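Thread amino acids onto this structure.
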């Protein structure tokens, strides 16, 4: 992922103010920034104008940026297509995860599928060989597809003799129903419990103790301070915590800032490209993009901290979070990229309690 210099941030903010006043057009800005940053600048100004209701003016900037996009990032072009499909409205077209199908399609895109396989492989390498029954907690389980693969891998690898229980937490009722069905199918006879709530509320009363807690692309749905509060509250509930997340800068930057837009331009532009590059029914691909990815994108670009739905952080910020929450009680077992390019990184962190509370693990 790339970051803007202080001079770039100042220039972008000045140009955005000029565009909002009607004094700066795309051609005026082109010579004032580096060629490779011009499409991202257009995305920033176009989204700011569109967020304020000036979608027609925003389209002018998106169009100028789209012409210059040639590095595997086509965020301006994707937003132009979205605006056309949504009849010119720059607002969230859906509630993310209310309908599980867009997310399920997303998890089947090759990059995501391979990344999740890499996540499972990493977990099997870093987890101990448990000698007794294993209890698993999934915070933000989605449809349970990854959870099911995870517990199956635990059994197949010999890391767990059997799974005693699984607790699934998710805020989407539809997702949680699918997750319960998936886990009961692959673990007949195992106790599978579901909690339909946000992680913030669920963490107030997590029952019992778990050998392993996992969270995949879910813990970023709260800002840093909430993440910290919840990890401190939860840390006595597990011996191993495994996080699968995206490296991006969507937590601390304020609404309308160049930093926020530049990170969104890279991360979501890359992911949307993966979806559209996948050989799938165009209608399904558009539903995945519009009702899941761009729904999140617009939330980040139009809603302030505390309201928006997503707060992805950089790996350094995640490391700081865990250092503050876990202090000296846990050891970092791995910091591994499951997928990485210059614009986006999907990574796995695994923390293990130094002295397990109720461990059934061998040496």
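Threaded sequence (363 positions):
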């Amino acid at each position: 992922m790339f970051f803007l210099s202080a001079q770039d941030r100042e220039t972008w903010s000045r140009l955005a103010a000029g565009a909002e006043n009607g004094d700066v057009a795309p051609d005026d800005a082109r010579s004032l920034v580096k060629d490779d940053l011009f499409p991202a600048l257009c995305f920033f100004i176009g989204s700011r104008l569109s967020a304020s209701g000036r979608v027609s003016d925003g389209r002018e900037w998106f169009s100028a940026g789209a012409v210059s996009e040639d590095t595997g990032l086509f965020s301006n072009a994707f937003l132009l297509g979205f605006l056309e499909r949504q009849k010119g409205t720059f607002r969230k077209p859906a509630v993310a995860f209310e309908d599980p199908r867009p997310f399920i399609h997303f998890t089947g895109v090759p990059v995501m599928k391979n990344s999740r396989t890499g996540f499972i492989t990493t977990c099997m390498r870093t987890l101990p060989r448990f000698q007794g029954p294993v209890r698993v907690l999934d915070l933000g389980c989605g449809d349970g597809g990854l959870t099911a693969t995870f517990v199956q891998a635990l059994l197949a690898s010999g890391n767990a003799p059997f799974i005693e229980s699984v607790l699934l937490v998710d805020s989407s009722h539809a997702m949680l129903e699918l997750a319960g069905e998936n886990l009961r199918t692959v673990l007949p006879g195992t106790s599978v419990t579901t909690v339909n709530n946000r992680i913030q509320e669920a963490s107030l009363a997590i029952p019992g103790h778990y050998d392993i807690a996992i969270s995949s692309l879910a813990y970023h749905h709260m800002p840093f301070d909430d993440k910290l509060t919840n990890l401190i509250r939860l840390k006595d509930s597990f011996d191993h915590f495994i996080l699968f997340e995206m490296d991006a800068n969507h937590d601390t930057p304020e609404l309308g800032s160049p930093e926020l837009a530049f990170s969104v331009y890279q991360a979501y532009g890359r992911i949307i490209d993966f979806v559209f590059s996948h050989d799938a029914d165009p209608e399904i691909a558009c539903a995945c993009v519009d009702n899941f990815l761009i729904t999140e994108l617009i939330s980040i670009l139009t809603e302030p901290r505390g309201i928006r739905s997503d707060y992805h952080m950089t790996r350094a910020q995640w490391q700081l979070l865990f250092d503050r929450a876990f202090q000296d009680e846990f050891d970092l077992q791995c910091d591994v990229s499951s997928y990485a390019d210059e614009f986006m990184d999907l990574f796995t962190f695994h923390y293990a309690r130094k002295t397990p509370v109720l461990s059934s693990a061998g040496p």
